[in-house]
Each structure stands twice: as C-alpha cells, then as structure tokens.
Design brief:
Distance between the termini: 44 Å
Number of strands: 13
Structural class: alpha/beta
Strand content: 5-15%
Largest sheet: 11 strands, mixed
Oligomer: single chain
Number of helices: 13
Helix content: 25-40%
C-alpha cells in the first residue's frame, strides 16, 4: 500500500476515547476554517527530549549549526497533564536521540497514566536498554531510522550505527509481541534517501518484512553541507521514479505499507512554497531548550514555555495567532518559505532539497 505523509490527521493504531475524538473533530474543523484562536487542543504534543545524539550522521547538519546541549525539562510534561486526556498522541522526537534523556522511562511511565498514544523516533542503538519499557509502558508507535538495507551503507551514513545489532533487537521485539499476542508497538523504518543509498529502498522493504515491521517510510535528503551536494536527489527524477516503482511493487507483494514523498515536479503543492501547513493547529512542539517552535524543521522560536500560564494562553498566544494567519500565504516567515519538513515541503522546489548556507535549525539556549 502506497501512502503519503499525513498533514491534517495522525496515524490511528487504536481507538480514540470519546474525549479525544471530540477534540480531534473540533481541531480539524477549526483547522479547515483557518481559525486563529482555537477552542480545541492540539491533536499531538511533540516533545524534543534532547538535541544530544550518540550517532554522527553525515547529513544531520550538526556541524552547520549551534548544538549547545539541552535536555527537556520533565516538569513541563507534568505541567501539560491537564490536556493529556484530550490530545491523541505524544511524540518524542526532535534533533536528538530521545532515549538518551536521563528520565526517558519515567516519561513513558507518566504518559501511560493517560489515554494518549506514545510514539518515539529512535536510531535503534539503545533498543536493548529500553526494550522492557516499550512493553511495560505500552509504546504504541516506534520509528527506527535506517539509511540502508546493507550494513556497509547504513553504518557509513549513520556513523556509530550498527545495522546487525538493530535488526537483532527488532527481531526480539517482534518475538515478544507474538508471544504476548500484542498489537503494539506499530513499527516502521524511516530512510533518508541519498543518491548513494536510494537503490536499497526495495531491499529495506524486504528487510522490514523479514523482521515483522509494518511500514517503511522514505524521506528525501535535505542537504545542509556543501560536501553532500552530490548526494541530493534534486533533478534525478528518473532514477527516483524507477526505485519508487520497484519499492512499491515489493511492498505490495510483501504486504508492507510504503510511505513516500511525491516525485519532483509532481508534488500536489504545485507552484506554492509548501503544501498547506497545519502544524500550528495540529501540533504543540516544545524544544529541548523549553522554547515553543512551530515544528522540528524550523529555526523560528515563539517563546519559552511558561509554567505559570495556562495551556490555552500559550496555545492561543499572539505568536501562535500570527503564525496561523501567515503560514499559508505570502506573509509566511523565512523558515516556512524554505520548508523542508518531510510532510509539508513542496518537492517541486530546489530549496526543499538544498539548504546550504541557510538557517535551518534553532540556536539552542541552556
């Protein structure tokens, strides 16, 4: 099954509560109406637990930005408790590896008191240390970043990654799922597609099937560093199309969901700077430095999280209202004009593929 990234809603892996369903319906209604002040809560909280990482991926851009170490304040999560019965999901995701947070399991345990889906993105190198917590605290969705079906390819791109170790850990997680007759966690591979590795996408689909994962997602490389310009897939449509077709056929044969971006010149955004963006309605993003940002792929910071304000005061702040009013028109901020966010970027535009010399990440403050 070929999928496109969701923009207005979220992946559904289990039924919502009545309270969640009511909020989501209202949120999507207000989103479509372009409301600036929302009665609904977001569908999702995105918490960047840290900007630290145990890998040195060649495309990350860490050498092109200011990556002063910051760690998410767990008291912010506790402060968000009043809305955790209404939001659908809490996603632990950002510039760093979330499982490095010193209180990662405590965060999962806290979230498990509420009906929210728990979702995190990991490089997989600490799966052995958190495996028990995945089941103990009912993690609903887990995305594993791999950039090749061959160890040589993946490990050279994701420096300090070990494909064989990750596969072994995932097989064990699938084995536990089967032994316990559980449907969670829903798992998918996420592959950043380079010129050098894209031809391994069909084999990554095969690997996902062999292990027992549900989905493979491919995202285009966005180049931040001059030395990776030759790796961009910009203006390589025929190569990309051939691989996509092969991967789609493989996914259909193996009953694996495959999520891919649009081909260059075929993006539904047409001549727009980006697809219609709904993150400021759907998501509430808290950075590891406690600053509220529109999304992971934008350097813009609204304001620092204020525990003395109600959630509604922050959610409908002047900054949020101004962003909602401008994000989809000519008044949008500079970061949005150069959108490279995998779901909302316009892949007809060169700037989505190449961000060299641009401000693509925030300056974190301790």
């Amino acid at each position: 099954m070929l999928l496109r990234a969701k923009t207005t809603g979220l992946l559904q892996v289990r039924p919502l509560t009545e309270e969640q369903e009511k909020n989501t319906k209202l949120n999507q209604k207000e989103m479509q109406e372009g409301k600036l002040i929302l009665e609904s809560k977001p569908q999702r909280l995105v918490l960047e637990l840290t900007n630290a990482c145990n890998l040195r991926c060649i495309m990350c851009g860490r050498d092109e930005a200011n990556f002063s170490l910051t760690t998410f304040d767990i008291d912010i999560l506790k402060n968000l408790a009043p809305i955790l019965n209404e939001v659908e999901e809490v996603t632990l995701f950002g510039w760093g590896e979330p499982t490095l947070h010193p209180h990662f399991e405590e965060i999962l345990a806290f979230l498990d008191k509420y009906p929210v889906k728990k979702y995190f993105v990991t490089n997989g190198m600490r799966l052995d240390k958190i495996k028990d917590a995945i089941f103990k605290y009912h993690v609903d969705i887990m995305a594993i970043s791999l950039d090749g079906a061959k160890a040589e390819t993946n490990n050279s791109i994701r420096v300090n990654s070990d494909l064989e170790f990750i596969v072994e850990q995932l097989k064990d997680i699938v084995k536990i799922k089967k032994e316990k007759n559980l449907s969670y966690p829903y798992m998918n591979f996420v592959m950043t597609m380079f010129d050098r590795n894209i031809e391994e996408l069909p084999d990554l689909v095969k690997l996902a099937s062999e292990i027992g994962l549900e989905e493979v997602k491919g995202v285009y490389l966005t180049v931040f560093s001059e030395n990776l310009l030759e790796e961009t897939l910009h203006n390589k449509k025929e190569k990309v199309k051939t691989v996509f077709e092969k991967a789609e056929k493989t996914a259909q044969e193996l009953n694996i969901k495959l999520k891919l971006p649009y081909l260059q010149d075929e993006d539904i955004a047409g001549e727009k700077l980006h697809k219609d963006c709904f993150v400021a309605w759907r998501d509430f993003f808290v950075g590891s430095d406690s600053y509220i940002r529109p999304c992971q792929s934008n350097a813009l910071k609204f304001f620092k999280y204020d525990k003395n304000k109600t959630f509604e005061e922050m959610w409908n702040s002047k900054e949020y209202q101004e962003f909602r009013a401008s994000v989809n028109n000519e008044k949008m901020c500079e970061g949005c004009r150069r959108c490279y966010q995998s779901s909302h970027a316009n892949w007809n535009n060169k700037i989505a593929f190449i961000q060299t010399g641009e401000e693509f990440a925030p300056s974190w403050e301790k």
